[in-house]
Design goal:
CATH topology of the largest domain: Nucleotidyltransferase, domain 5
Number of helices: 10
CATH class of the largest domain: Alpha Beta
Shape: globular
CATH superfamily of the largest domain: Ribonuclease H-like superfamily/Ribonuclease H
Radius of gyration: 20 Å
Number of strands: 6
Order of helices and strands: HHHHHHEEEEHEHEHH
CATH architecture of the largest domain: 2-Layer Sandwich
Largest sheet: 6 strands, mixed
Helix content: 40-55%
């Protein structure tokens, strides 16, 4: 309990430096637990690898437990998705404001086993956001769920991310990259190999896409060692999300809850990186 309270107070202090607002949602009655405090409690739970809300409400101190019920906490957390994303971008900007080199990659997020996919109702409230079947080439497995696409700096700080269906190819995320970046170098793996996309990114936004060539390509040339070494940074970041933040473990039943969980884990990583570097 003391460990939770100490980390909660530290994260809340850091959040209050980013925004002066305490409540982001418009409510008739002023809640006992402010929105900024709820976000701090959520990020503290993610940092301490508390992945279950039931477990969270067992260990939080009484000063927080008496201010909010578990069901209200869950609903308000989902409604604060946009506010959490705003906070994540503010912290990310402090790292990546003058960065010119970024890394792009994707990672599978399984929500149910393939044998249960036909009868699973997880995140199926609408066709647009429903999961589907896909294939992960790096892990050589078929799975049912989503795919997270992310861009991070060479220091390992998430700049941008998105969630798509599992069947969406990695290269389609470059359309989002085109709208969010300009005049920079982006390192990718062979999944982003496309001469048309490379030319379009460079001509429209002066984005140079560095991708290793396949061995059977004409004029094959090995990619520079420095690029191959730096590109592994995003793999380390994904491993941290899987091991410490347990991003592949899913308890959400709706897509709103699922995307809020993913965002909370990525925001927690960014805030901890900020605390370690600047405080």
């Amino acid at each position: 309990m003391n460990d939770f309270r100490t980390n909660y107070d530290k994260i809340l202090e850091v959040l209050q430096k980013v925004t002066e607002k305490e409540n982001f949602l418009t409510q008739i009655r002023t809640p006992k637990l402010k929105d900024i405090e709820l976000i701090a409690m959520n990020l503290t739970a993610e940092y301490l690898s508390i992945d279950s809300e039931c477990q969270l409400f067992r260990i939080i101190p009484d000063c927080l437990k008496t201010k909010i019920e578990r069901s209200v906490y869950n609903r308000r957390k989902r409604k604060l998705f946009a506010s959490i994303e705003f906070i994540r971008k503010e912290f990310s900007l402090k790292f990546t404001e003058f960065e010119n080199y970024f890394i792009v990659d994707s990672m599978p997020l399984e929500v149910a086993k393939l044998s249960r996919s036909s009868r699973s109702k997880i995140c199926k409230e609408s066709f647009y956001s429903a999961p589907n079947k896909g294939y992960c080439a790096s892990q050589k497995m078929h799975y049912y769920g989503y795919k997270i696409h992310a861009v991070c700096s060479v220091e390992g700080v998430f700049k941008s991310f998105d969630i798509s269906k599992a069947s969406v190819h990695d290269i389609h995320y470059l359309k989002d990259v085109k709208n969010q970046f300009n005049e920079c170098v982006i390192l990718g793996d062979k999944g982003y190999l496309s001469a048309d996309y490379q030319l379009d990114l460079f001509e429209s936004k002066q984005i140079k896409l560095e991708v290793p060539m396949r061995k059977n390509q004409m004029n094959f040339k090995i990619q520079d060692y420095i690029f191959r070494k730096k590109r592994k940074r995003i793999e380390t970041l994904f491993s941290q999300l899987c091991d410490q933040f347990m991003i592949r473990r899913n308890y959400a039943k709706s897509f709103a809850g699922f995307k809020t969980r993913i965002l909370s884990k990525i925001t927690a990583v960014t805030i901890i990186q900020y605390i370690n570097k600047f405080i």
